Amino acid sequence: MKQFSKPILLLAFLLTLWEQTSAQDPRFSQFYASPWNLNPAMTGLFNGRWRVTANYRDQWSSFLNPVPFRTYAAAFDARFEVGRDDYAAFGIGAMHDEAGTSKFEQNKVQIGGAFLKQLTGGRYRARNYLSAGAQLGFGQNSIDWGRLWFTRQFDPSSESPNPTLPNGEPDANANTDVYLDFNAGLLWYMLFGDNGFVYAGGALHHINAPVISLTGDDQETLYSRWSGHAGGQFPLSDNFSALPGVLVMKQGPSFETDFGLNFRYSNNDLNELAMRAGAWARLGNKLDEGLQMDAITVVGMLEFNRWMLGLSYDITTSSLTAANNSRGAFEISLTYFHPGERRARIVCPKF
To answer: What would the CATH number be for the domain defined by 6-338?
Structure first.
């Protein structure tokens, strides 16, 4: 049996915890501000000609500094009219995620497309739309073995690890093979009144279950992940509205659900200035102990004309509070919407 040092055991614990709370895939608490990573059907689902999104997440810096879990993502998408009431969209996105002392990294680049169809609508009828999308890309995972040490590298004479000694680990590779990744999704939404809308969608990621082994094991594949999400905007007055939402995800043995509410204030001016604030709860399964509260996320967002900036912080509520004093994750999102040359027939909600 292989023997591991305490740092390796700690790494294994943290990687296991990460897998249980995030279902293996990196994810954002502001999932509604990262549409490319949420659902391929959300490609081109915005008011304007093209859009750029950027997201950053820093998790557990309170006790893993200087090597916390960090996730970076960026995407570009645009849409074009292909019929009187139909649109096609395309996009490209990338994600980089790194975790812990070993700098375990996940890198993905994908291209995607979607088709947006108006189902019903008119002067006196609610407008219903359906969008279908897919993404195809490549990924690669890696680990820096030089940042870890094993019991075989412990030098008794100096009573300290000597990383220059061989670790004796067979079939250990720094990188996985480059793998193909395929995602697909659907989303329906309905507009009502002046600013109201409701939506519901679902997506399936890693449909082809790619091989992600670092040890040459062809049976080590990435679990497919399914997700469902729903929400809407409900006007409370001329200036205020409520935006509830829920996201449910499952990947292999891991399950997570996020739900909450943002309140939005808008001046309804030509150069619109709007603010959002809210709170979200996250539940996840913890091994065989069932579903438990993992964190509460507080959110603040600012919308100004073409820009939207979001800031959020995860307050840990699980047993991990003993290690991080409830200091979880910081997240920032930034979105730019480029206006269209003329008013589009299809109107999209502001998620």
So the answer is: 2.40.160.60
